[in-house]
Amino acid sequence: MRGSIVALVTPMHADGSVDWERLRKLVDWHVEQGTDAIVAVGTTGESATLGFEEHDLVIREVISAAAGRLPVIAGTGANSTEEAIRLTRDAQKAGADACLLVTPYYNKPTQEGLYQHFRAIAEEVEIPQILYNVPGRTACDMLPDTVVRLSQVPNIVGIKEATGKLERVQDILSRTKDGFRVYSGDDPTAIEAILLGASGNISVTANVVPKCMAEACAAALAGDGDRAHTLDAGMRDLHQKLFVESNPIPVKWALQEMGLIDAGIRLPLTPLSTDGQAQLRPVLTAAGLLEA
């Protein structure tokens, strides 16, 4: 899988229940807009507040809606190894193309603990697995040495590296086995990461401008830095303001304003504040996503 991979929101009704109709429509929209793959129930999909059954149901629904038109990567990480194995096994049974596994959060394992955690999941479930390092959210940083060790596990096929540190992307690419893929998890630096050799971007911004993100990633993958940078420049303010409050608060509000989803979001996350709306609205308007 290469290119623009949207970290899809999970649409919800105002009462917080999953909006299955809107979910299916979002998948159709991303297919039409040229998105290369979908991550279902990642951080942006509010994985932390979906129950086990809901988690599995959302993944199955996205796979069903995609109907083979683009790959689906299931978010199945957890801070419990046993729980992550269960979620990953369920995603494989549902027909996911791969799984995305975040580093365990809150319990702060050592690097050896991280290695043993991810190796155990990979040995239990044969589906291709992508590591996910986002220390800003998990308080757990998986260092390149550990990634290099894990890259030797046959079905660990890549990493979503969300630190935004381009030197780390280069380091991982230079020391992992051939075919091991690095994906950016940081929209502001994603195009540079792809030009350095990353395989794509697992993106929040792609939720609102999927076509532009897909075209920018395709240009970068083709080595056309000028076009990739030009397209990326048009998304620069979105990259920033979609994180004016904790993700996915701003992106869900943006999609609501665009008429693509309802207003639902689950506690402890709350709707975008008045100040956040005042910062994000003009950026959406400038991007042509809202009427002036």
UniProtKB/TrEMBL annotation:
Enzyme Commission (EC) number: 4.3.3.7
Pathway as given in its UniProt record: Amino-acid biosynthesis; L-lysine biosynthesis via DAP pathway; (S)-tetrahydrodipicolinate from L-aspartate: step 3/4
Subcellular location(s) per record: Cytoplasm
Domain of life: Bacteria
Swiss-Prot/TrEMBL catalytic activity: L-aspartate 4-semialdehyde + pyruvate = (2S,4S)-4-hydroxy-2,3,4,5-tetrahydrodipicolinate + H2O + H(+)
Entry binding sites for pyruvate: 44, 202
InterPro entries named among the record's database cross-references: Aldolase_TIM (IPR013785), DapA (IPR005263), DapA-like (IPR002220), Schiff_base-form_aldolases_AS (IPR020625), Schiff_base-form_aldolases_CS (IPR020624)
This protein's record includes keyword Lyase: yes
Record-linked SMART domains: DHDPS
Biological role: Catalyzes the condensation of (S)-aspartate-beta-semialdehyde [(S)-ASA] and pyruvate to 4-hydroxy-tetrahydrodipicolinate (HTPA).
Protein name: 4-hydroxy-tetrahydrodipicolinate synthase
